[in-house]
Amino acid sequence: MDGQTMAESLSEQELAERVVRAERRIDCMETALAAVTDEIDGVSLSSRCSKCEQSLLLIKDGMLHCPNCGNGHPL
Ligand SMILES: [Zn+2]
Are residues 27 and 49 in the same domain? Predict the structure, then answer.
């Protein structure tokens, strides 16, 4: 490595394209994830985990649960 960070080695144009691609992927993932949770009885999605902020919380059997850090509590 020459000491440059990845962000510095990319042009603004390249970064903008990356952001657009990433947003499209997130939109696709959210649509698919919502459809998957709809298929599972009693499971739905909540807001982002306030503890780790790495995942949305799942709601199952009246409990909120973070699949990333295990944070959870009753609704
Ligand atoms: Zn978490």
Answer: no
Cα 17 to middle of ligand 1, angstroms: 30
pTM of this structure: 0.67
How many whole angstroms from 59 Cα to the centroid of ligand 1?
13
- pLDDT tens for each residue of the chain, 75 residues long: 555 566 578 899 999 999 999 999 999 999 999 899 999 989 999 999 999 999 999 999 899 999 999 999 898
Number of domains in the chain: 2
Scan for tokens 């959210």, then name that residue: 30
CA of 23 to the centre of ligand 1 (A): 22
Using the structure block, give the residue that is written with the tokens 């009885």: 41
